[in-house]
Structure formats: structure tokens, C-alpha cells
Fold this protein.
Amino acid sequence: MTRSPESESPRRPTVVFGVLGGIAAGKSTVARVLAGADGVVLSADEAAHEALADGDLQAKLVGRFGPGVMRPGIDGGPDDVDRAELARLVFDDPQARKALEGWIHPVVRATLHASFEDARRRGVPFVVLDVPLLLENADEHGLLELCDHLVFVDAPLAVRDTRAVRDRGWDPGEVARREATQMPLSTKRTRADVVIQNDGDHGALENATRQALRNLVPR
């Protein structure tokens, strides 16, 4: 039987979260829990991965940084960008970093905005922006103004450094070195609507995130 328009539940507007926090704080886990089964996470890191797979961009990278910026593909597949080596090359070279960002950032912005508009058209209940420089580059990417709520994931530097060494193969102290070029975490924390502590295990982080979601978006 066809339901009348009066009997249909009105579609709730999409709620948009922006996730803030330091490197290796657990932002991706929080983003996934906030999105839930019916929401979507829009990751700048994943969009950058896709951008780096483009052959024309890879040619520009090799022309600027040399063939050492590429590594053999997995199982005989096409070569791909060695992101760790690329990061090492550009981190202490402002001109190189500016060139790289000029190639990648426009692609990432376009990808994220297109995905956001698609999610909103489909009536996705929750969209979570996992964008490391959400505050720093707000004027450039225009994503901050889309957010209804900002969530900060807080974890001690020592814990995050240990995670980065263990999970990413970084040198000790690399987290602090990279964050020194970004907006202070204390500033980001004050901009957030809610702070989620991540100094326990994975289950505790998920539970804290679900509680934050209930507080921000009562059912």
C-alpha cells in the first residue's frame, strides 16, 4: 500500500561533525563511530591517497623530487608514491611543500565537496569530516563552515608519540616536530563543542564517542 505524504516521517537534515585533535590521537576511530552504519566519513587523507595515484601528478613529483619518491607497486602492480619519503623531502622545505600542496589540495577539496553534496542529496544522517587542517586552512577549503559540531580527541603527547612509532614507523619525537608547524592543540581544543579523552583502550574510546554523540544529537 502506498503511504500518503502525511504518513511519511520527515527526513531529518544531515548533521555534520568536524573532528579535531593531534596526530595519532584516535580521530579516525572517533570519526567512524560518529558516522555509524548509516553515515559517511570524508577523509582528507584518503582523498590525498587517491590524488597521488594520478599518473600526471606522479610525473610532476618525479620531475620535482626525482625517481626516489616512487616505490614499486604491490604484487607487480603499478608503482606508487612513497608517502613517507615525500613527507621527508617537503617537511623542511617550504617551497617544496607549497608546490606539493598546490598540486594536491585543489583535488582533495573538490573530492570532499563533491562527496559532501552527494551525501546530503541522499539524506545521509551524519557526515564526519576527518580533515587534519580543518581549522588552519578553513578559508582555503571552505569545510569548517559546513560543520554543526566540532569534536576534539584528546590524548597525551607521550601516548600519541608511542602510537606513531608503533603504528607508522615514525622516529620518536616526530609527532611534536610536525605539530610545531600547526595551530596549537590548546587552541583547537577551545574551539570544540565536546572533548573526548583517549587515554584508555579502544573500547573506552568508542563508548566515550557514543556518549558524546548522544549529548550532541539527542534522539
In short: The CA atoms of residues 163 and 169 lie 9 Å apart.
